[in-house]
């Protein structure tokens, strides 16, 4: 498989993962799937995954653009959860967990890029 075909496949997986993360984030709390005992860890796992996929799919995109996009997505989740009939709790700490995962992956990405040059 060529590099461009692989990146196209990763982009599809990214968008499917993003959609799934959003749906799971807005389901009523009892219906939500948890991968860890803490919802903060769930947020970190989701955003580590999304950031890794984004970094692989858009290799030439500057890290700050990926960071802005995924940070805004995390904010969208929290704003949606603040809608009363969703019956979820919007928390600043959740968004900070999202952002911390994004920045961690992008720091590693940038370190690898520098090392490879």
What descriptors fit this protein?
single chain; 117 residues; mainly alpha; 4 helices
SSE blueprint and pairings:
Blueprint: H1 3-26, H2 39-57, H3 63-81, H4 92-116
Helix pairs in contact: 1-2, 2-3, 2-4, 3-4
Structure description:
Helix content is 74%, strand content 0%. It is built from four helices and no strands. Helix 2 (39-57) runs parallel beside helix 4. The two termini are 25 Å apart.
Summarize the structure.
This protein is an all-alpha fold and 117 residues long. It has four helices and no strands.
- The value of Rg in angstroms is 15 Å
Poorly predicted runs: none
Q: Total strand count, please?
A: 0
How would you sum up the major sheet?
none
Secondary-structure-based class equals mainly alpha
